[in-house]
Amino acid sequence: MCGIVTAIATNNVVPVLLEGLRKLEYRGYDSAGLAVLSGSLSRLRAAGRVAELAALADARQLSANIGIAHTRWATHGVPSERNAHPHISGGLAVVHNGIIENFEAIKSSLEARGYVFESETDTEAIAHLVHSKLETHPDLFEAVRLATNELVGAYAIGVLAEADPFRAIVARRGSPLLLGIGEQGMYAASDTAALLQVTRKVVYLEDGDLAELRLDGYRVVRPDGEAVEREVHLSSLSADAVELGQFRHYMQKEIFEQPQALGNTLEMIAGGGAISPQHFGARAAEIFDGVRRVLVLACGTSYHAGLVARYWLESVAKIPTTVEIASEYRYRESVPEADTLVVVISQSGETADTLAALKHAKTLGMARTLAICNVPESAIVRESALRFITRAGPEIGVASTKAFTTQLAALALLTLALAKLNGRLPEAEEQRHLTALRHLPVAVQKVLELEPEIEKWAQRFASKEHALFLGRGRHWPIAMEGALKLKEISYIHAEAYAAGELKHGPLALVDKDMPVIAVSPADELLEKLKSNLQEVRARGGELYVFADAGSEIPESEGVHILHMPEHYGMLSPVLHVIPLQLLSYHAALVKGTDVDKPRNLAKSVTVE
Ligand code: G6P
Fold it and tell me: Where is the active site (predicted)?
């Protein structure tokens, strides 16, 4: 959701800015722009893709040693060239990611002073505010510091000024921003992927930090102006990790990376490794001790991972578990209990609601917090007492796939670690679970081989307007995830139900035009599910059943069966989500939608 790139270098930065924006495209955006200084300020904006902006830059043969660039995901004002960033005030240009909550008040006071607003954005208020500060504080860095101290809300910004052409200023609060130290200059961006083209040396800015980027270095200060040192990290990401390679889409690449992502995430138990609280950090044994309940907070796909974990935590570790949508939890009056382990799940570690829900739980006195996250230095990880970093690698497709299955792997380990601490995991059971976890990458690989059959199903699906997903028990959240995937990328309206609820409403929708997808593992609920499927057939509904070998659901007219491998016990949800990911991917391909960047959606939702 919005992306920023800033660069000052000895060579032309325009290609670096554009390539950085391309690498940030996955975050979700609807317009793009850049501003560079080369004698005077030049600004280019496009109400569309980065490719259009690049074409404009080419046509103008733009070249400069300093610049800022932006992909915008509309919040204040429609997606349009006029609202695209950078916004300008005098000779000063600003790009911004986030939402300024007090922008109306700032705007009114600036208008009263004669500033004229050309866009509907909150960002333009930042540009004029910094400009107004320059009247009394001619130093640009100081003017930005004073201006940001008046902002309420979330921001990551980049600022350039014609009158001060040898530095760029950046600042952040709430929205992500990191610095890159390159051979030919200094850079800043919303995430590492944008900077791998020039450097792997990065500095993560903390909330409230302001930084000045110069050709010969940088400095960071706090909001009161006090200088601070921030550690330099060497990113372990390789530029290849964010390349498409042989695949047509990132989503496809990421679906097929799942065996490796799971293997990497579960590396600690490879070979002879046992289940241990240590997997969650050095202090985990102490923090887990006395935990009587678990509260999971998350959004979107990560929330579905939490829902699966509830079944595991209650059945295996016998720990009462609640799973809540972060945006609900943060605003509702709840009853805190100190012996709760708060587990926040987030691919990006940036999701505004999940971060706020975590902070809210802490203010309620729940200090035992664990982040399950795919981005090591993210805000959510830094805010949590314990962390488990899934090693899915960068996930670029907006629809989350490998992040989900690696979250499930982490949650399975958590379940087993808590069960072991509570004396509920006999040695033989532990070994059985360890064997299943170690074998998981191979089992997933086998499911991926079903792709050609799923592709055929997708052909029939793509013409449908609605679909119903059914599942029971720990596969109900998998049905929910399947429905979410389908609507996200193919725009087919899809809903998921616990199959037992069918006759309490959704059955009324079933007819020959409503495909019903059933997640049907050969588990203890199979017989119940079979009865639900009969109810669908009796109403003329067409069934698409993902059954385990041995489920014994006969194929017949209107009942299509796809046989998965043997039933995989507790971890079966990890296998059953794979065909649903593939089904939505192929349905989207047939429909010709923008698979990796579906309309209106963003990868990292850094605003409420
Ligand atoms: C967005 C993404 C989803 C993701 C959700 C939560 O909506 O499009 O794919 O599941 O945010 O994101 P998180 O990074 O917190 O897992």
Answer: 2 (nucleophile), 603 (for fru-6p isomerization activity)
